[in-house]
Amino acid sequence: MPRDIQVRRIQPGAEAEFVTGLEWLFAPPGGRPADWDRDRAVERTAQVLAKDDAALFEARSRQDELVGVASVYLDIMSVRFGRRASIEDLAVHPGRRSRGVGAALLATARSWAYEHGADYVFLESGNARTEAHRFYLREGAIQAAASFRWSRSASD
Predict the structure, then answer these.
(1) Quick check: is 86 in a domain?
(2) What is the CATH number of the domain that holds 74?
(3) Going residue by residue through the chain (156 aa), what tens digit of pLDDT does each one get?
(4) pTM for the complete prediction?
(5) Which of 30, 56, 54 is nearest to 42 (CA)?
(6) Is 44 inside any structural domain?
(7) Number of folded domains in the chain?
(8) Which of the chain's termini has less CB crowding within 10 Å, N or C?
(9) Cis link prior to 29 (omega < 30° from 0)?
């Protein structure tokens, strides 16, 4: 972990700042979801903080500036693969990328998952995030599947 950052679990009261970190994912090559509601995201962050099967992490600079966020959830028990943990969010401030912040957050999230009984860790990433994909592969991930999604708000 870079010596100039500290990764820790977020605490109640930091929900809005965590969501600010998530919004870094909207910068290209990402995009703001059509149904994004910041207030709802802050409420959901508070709900996640109350759960035992999830953890939210923040990376902070020596000057106590937020430089990254991550979320990890214990989510399913697979008959084939065992207990899965999903890293749902991993976002680094655009000005702090490629400086070890993402690697520190990823290592912390994976450690939490394994300490809480996960047999494997899953991470889904948008097709356009080729730089992120290279990073995940450098960090030892294997590209194992294509991902498909249905949304309740999508029209059929």
Answers:
(1) yes
(2) 3.40.630.30
(3) 678 899 999 999 999 999 999 999 999 998 999 899 999 999 999 999 999 999 999 999 999 999 999 999 999 999 999 999 999 999 999 999 889 999 999 999 999 999 999 999 999 998 899 999 999 999 999 998 888 888 776 554
(4) 0.90
(5) 56
(6) yes
(7) 1
(8) C
(9) yes
Asked, for residue 90, whether it belongs to a domain, the answer is yes
Cα atoms found within 13 Å of the Cα of residue 16, Cβ hemisphere only: 2
Instruction: Of 55, 68, 49, give the one whose Cα is nearest residue 113.
Output: 55
Nearest to 118 by CA among 33, 50, 53: 53
Please check whether residue 143 lies inside any domain of the structure. no
Segments forming the whole domain that contains residue 25: 5-138
Write down the residue that tokens 């000005």 correspond to: 95
Contact 99, 2 (CB under 8 A): yes
Long-range contacts of 80-85 (CB under 8 A, 24+ apart): 81/119, 81/120, 82/119, 82/120, 83/117, 83/118, 83/119, 83/120, 84/118, 84/119, 84/120, 84/121, 84/122, 85/110, 85/112, 85/113, 85/114, 85/116, 85/118, 85/120, 85/121, 85/122
Residue with tokens 């943990």: 85
For the chain, the distance separating the N- and C-terminal CA atoms, rounded to the nearest angstrom, is 46
